[in-house]
Amino acid sequence: MHIHVVNHPLIKEKMTRLRDAKTESPLFRQLLDQIAQLLLFEVTRDLPVKTLPVTTPLATTTGYALDVSSITVVPILRAGLGFLDAVLDLMPEANAGHIGLYRDEKTLKPIEYYCKMPQDKNAQIILIDPMLATGGSGAAAISLLQEKGYKNIRFMCLVAAPEGVKLINEEHPDVDIYAAALDDHLNEDGYIVPGLGDAGDRVFGTVVK
Question: Which of 46, 56, 107, 189 is catalytic?
Answer without folding.
Answer: 107
